[in-house]
Amino acid sequence: MRIIGSYVSPYVRKVTACLALKGLDYEIDPITPFFGNEEFARLSPLRRIPVLIHEDLVLTDSSVICAWLDEEFSGHPLLPVAPADRARARWLEEYADSRLGDLFIWGLFYQKCVHPLVWGEPGDQARIETTLAEGAPAALDYLEGELPDSGWLFGEIGLADIAIASFFRNADYADFAIDAGRWPRTAGFVARALAHPCFAATFPFERAQLSTNPAGRRQALLDAGAPLTAESLGTRAPRRGIMTL
């Protein structure tokens, strides 16, 4: 089983955490989202990650992948059994993917990390300020009423817990921390989830990817008149860089 994606993507992280819960072996083929050659475009028409390849099956979209994993493989369940709980779990996953993604990826991580480090440009400061002053507090107010004081949403850690927590790892990379005095349930829940072993396997690779600063390489390429591409910037690992996890 192969996963094409970036280690620091919350959507890739969600899939790899679910694979870990299921006890399944997989490989990561690192790539920067929205880049890739024609073969990648064939596999992922929207040029988004993750992509899962298993034998003749190719799946894109993290929610589709996780649903397939739960239906195809036994072991740790990713969704609760009761229909009402399953529906609520799917809603919380969707809320995380849509709302938390908009806030913590596009509103903070992309603006504060990707823009300056990869493209050598400042992020949208107005969007950062709006996210911090309005969007993030509203999302945390909502989660504070949904998340448990202890343990997990549906008895044992599953897809909804993983989906929510994954975005806060990127928020942390963008220097955002939950105010535990104002949102104690959310702060405790996120800390518990990110400390779970299912997130542990890829964390060293995330840190390694973030520790490489492409800014110097970017300037050297500009000075040489070379094109700025994912490969030249070093944000796409070579094919031989597949890691087996």
Strand proportion, as a percent range, falls in 5-15%
Distance between the termini: 11 Å
Assigned CATH class of the largest domain = Alpha Beta
Number of strands: 5
Q: Which superfamily, in CATH terms, is the homologous superfamily of the largest domain?
A: Glutaredoxin
Cα shape: globular
CATH topology group of the largest domain: Glutaredoxin
| Percentage of residues in helical conformation | 55-70%
Summarize model confidence as the mean pLDDT: 85
Q: Give the low-pLDDT segments.
A: 215-245
Number of separate structural domains = 2
Rg, alpha carbons: 18 Å
Query: Which class best fits the helix and strand makeup?
Result: alpha+beta
Strand order of the largest sheet: 4-3-1-2-5
What is the name of the CATH architecture of the largest domain? Answer: 3-Layer(aba) Sandwich
Largest beta-sheet details: 5 strands, mixed
Continuous helix count: 10
Sequence of secondary-structure elements: EHEHEEHHHHHHHHE
Short structural summary:
The chain is α+β, with helices and mostly antiparallel strands.
Topology at a glance:
Blueprint: E1 2-5, H1 10-22, E2 27-30, H2 38-43, E3 51-54, E4 57-60, H3 62-72, H4 83-119, H5 125-146, H6 159-173, H7 184-194, H8 203-211, H9 215-224, H10 230-233, E5 243-244
Parallel strand pairs: 1-2
Antiparallel strand pairs: 1-3, 2-5, 3-4
Helix pairs in contact: 1-3, 1-6, 4-5, 4-6, 6-7
